[in-house]
Amino acid sequence: MEYSFSQSTNALTSSAVREILKLTQGNQVLSLAGGLPAEDSFPIEEMREAFNRALDLGPKSLQYGLTDGYIPLREWVASRMKQKHMNVGVENMLITTGSQQAVDLLCRVYLDEGDVVLVENPTYLAAVQLFQFRGIRAIPVDGDAEGMDMDDLARKIAQFRPKMVYVIPTFANPTGKVWSAERRLGLLRQCREHNILILEDDPYGEIQFDGEAPYRSIFSLDEHPQGSAVVYTSTFSKIVAPGLRTGWAIGDSRVIQMMVKAKQAIDLQSSTIDQIALHQLLDRFDLEAHIGKIRCSYQERMEWMHELLTREAWTGMKWSKPRGGMFLWVELPEHIHSEKLLAQAVKEGVAFVPGVPFYAAQAQTNTMRLNYTLLDRENTELAVSRLGKAFAAYSQVVAG
Amino acid sequence: MEYSFSQSTNALTSSAVREILKLTQGNQVLSLAGGLPAEDSFPIEEMREAFNRALDLGPKSLQYGLTDGYIPLREWVASRMKQKHMNVGVENMLITTGSQQAVDLLCRVYLDEGDVVLVENPTYLAAVQLFQFRGIRAIPVDGDAEGMDMDDLARKIAQFRPKMVYVIPTFANPTGKVWSAERRLGLLRQCREHNILILEDDPYGEIQFDGEAPYRSIFSLDEHPQGSAVVYTSTFSKIVAPGLRTGWAIGDSRVIQMMVKAKQAIDLQSSTIDQIALHQLLDRFDLEAHIGKIRCSYQERMEWMHELLTREAWTGMKWSKPRGGMFLWVELPEHIHSEKLLAQAVKEGVAFVPGVPFYAAQAQTNTMRLNYTLLDRENTELAVSRLGKAFAAYSQVVAG
């Protein structure tokens, strides 16, 4: 039997990076590569009670449920969204298998092969891969610390006539960047003018380190929910636990209902019992206090990594201290190719993600993303010191 | 904001049937429509213990896991598949969000827009919808009680040059049909000869009523797993519980690994804790005894519905007693259009699925699918009697 895969699988060819990272699984390599939450933040005992209560509700916890999701969970999320100036009802909301699935569903119902999506550069690598897998052209827009460059956005809109813009405006992956209010409004204005849908991906918005008021979502700055130019997606992965694979999307009910129809064909629905257990948890849980603890712990870990990197003081290395989220984005001296550095780092027993796969085009090869949430203090120190050794070894080779 | 959906959403337009069935939710309408397992078959207390034990394993039960699925669960499935003459390893297997997702993943990695899939006629309506949503042409092959007609299969292969054939050879949805061994081998021979992949969907194979040896899967009759012309998919939905949304696909490792890459982009992975809990359940559970009970109970319900239909004795109605599975496929007198009958039935307080959406083409409008697994004895009796009233009322209108 000769297998002949679809053309779209060309976008799925395994990257060199993924192959290297595979080698790190299950051995002694310390990983700064993933986007994994700290495991000591998981509310294990509360989840145990929640699953018990879910099963107390009887067989419905194990039966098929609605494609758009368990209604009490959607009501809970709607009420939380309202606190964040997003006045939505259950009909504007769909529960998904992580927010990743929301990106896939929206692509499938809104974009055809050959359509253009504008993206930040760099941006979330799995979103870029998903666009490519769907045959969509992801075109990067220039940006700075405040968000996308509004002039370049206007140029790219004129040149490429995109149907969608994909952004992570709050503690972006991989850069940790926060868009200014002005840029958020600017994006909204241009998109409304040209009838372009915005997909606002917000998995990290709750993980804010400063004591300021939360940054307003772009969705909340627009008309909402009906007629909104924005579909907003978020997840419980970073504030409760990722293993439940529960995220949500909100938007105009016509868009959401089309995503629901697609989901019905694709996988019928996400896990019933996980949704019911999550609702049982949230119903009694002090989520604010829990998020507060996560913020403190992640800020501490971020500060610690910042301190360690500062101490190491490798020549020509630059980074900005993130105001939230899970990642520290590092610019290395220009002569350093971070994919090659990764090979050296894995030998030393530490892994990270090189910057290249985060770029839809014009990749900067001297960049890397470090995750600071997974490892504890001691292991972070060990990881950064191993990284230092790799950096020194690599620099020597390059110099030699 | 003007929304403009992708072309593929044309395949998702809500059917009249779905709209009618929506009206039945949450009220007093008895449903013979869904494919829902009997809720008294769910092992609630065993699942409770299993979730507890999963959480005893610590934070990994709530953390991200492997895209291809929890290894001990895959090992368990592999060992069960071996008992059924399918000698596969974990590298030949992918855990999916129900077997429905396996169909979607295989479509996405194996078929391009415009490609042809041959299907039984009628066949699983959500598979047909999924093919259409992907822009794939689903072409029906004639068949009889033994399976696809081998001559028509040969003709359709020559005419349409399909890349795939989709079949449910054991207790098919919606017909309850079981393919003969000869037809299984015939399909395999023709597909191997023309390098066509077979997608064998087997959600109901375990629900066998007669005491015979289990019917051999087409996958088990082929070379396996490497080089197999078959990708086989099944699920825990019918033998444990559907709310866990856990299914699997097995096949050649190159095909499976391509599906894994697609799943990584689409939703990263299915629920970690559901997979671990399911493994904890299966590890201590007498699954054989449990399946035995389900078989008995479903056979009893099927016999009861058969008896009730026989008693009602509506003129011109025909059906075959299924040897397993969850559905009874009914042919009505030719002048009866079952979608119109449904509207009448819902007024009487009973719902079913009309046959039309199960046909990729050449639909027989005088057919309907009745589910016999969900309702208990009393409600089944009430449902069939309401159906009788609807039938009488409809016949009068037609006669008048």
From TrEMBL, chains A, B:
| Cofactor(s) required, per the database record | pyridoxal 5'-phosphate
Residue ranges of domain Aminotransferase class I/classII large in the record: 30-387
Q: Which UniProt keywords apply?
A: Aminotransferase, Pyridoxal phosphate, Transferase
**Source taxon at top rank:** Bacteria
GO terms in the biological process aspect are:
alpha-amino acid metabolic process
The protein's matches in InterPro entries, at most eight in alphabetical order, are given as:
Aminotransferase_I/II_large (IPR004839), Class-I_PLP-dep_aminotransf (IPR050859), PyrdxlP-dep_Trfase (IPR015424), PyrdxlP-dep_Trfase_major (IPR015421), PyrdxlP-dep_Trfase_small (IPR015422)
A GO molecular function annotation here is: transaminase activity
Keyword Hydrolase carried by entry: no
Q: How is the subunit organization of this protein annotated in UniProt?
A: Homodimer.
What protein family does this chain belong to? Belongs to the class-I pyridoxal-phosphate-dependent aminotransferase family.
Q: What is this protein called?
A: PLP-dependent aminotransferase family protein
